[in-house]
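Today's session is about reading a structure prediction critically. Students often jump straight to the picture, but the first step is always the sequence itself: look for stretches that repeat, for charged clusters, for runs of hydrophobic residues. Only then move on to the predicted structure, which in these notes is written as discrete structure tokens rather than atom positions. Here is the chain we will use throughout the hour.
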Amino acid sequence: MRKNNMINFDSKTDYISIAFTGNLEYGLIDELKEELHAISVDTKHGYVIDMQKVTNIDSTGFGMIINFAKKVTIAEKKIAIIVTDDFIRKLFAISQCDKVFPIAKSELQAQQMIKEKSWLGELALSEY
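Below is the predicted structure for this chain, in token form.
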């Protein structure tokens, strides 16, 4: 079975971009979870999670992002998520992840969101 799921890390000047591709679903993301867990939290501002090439995400995928976010929060860094697809945006709303994380429409907007410490979600990560 060929998996078309990928994760790509790109270190920028003051944040790390993490781009996902494919379906973030149960049974398909074990390797992605391991790679995400192994990433260093040594970055100035935080992380931009790019979901522009994600075609579907289920509770396992959201769980992977939430677990990573907890690791990042302990290191006092920020996360912003780029979601451009309407279907994926609806899934974020249904899961209420859009109340925990700032959702951006571009990398520039996400970059600004992690630099500004002012964004407060409707739900704290600890309440999710």
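Discussion point for the tutorial: The beta strands are 6-11, 15-24, 46-57, 78-82, 103-104.
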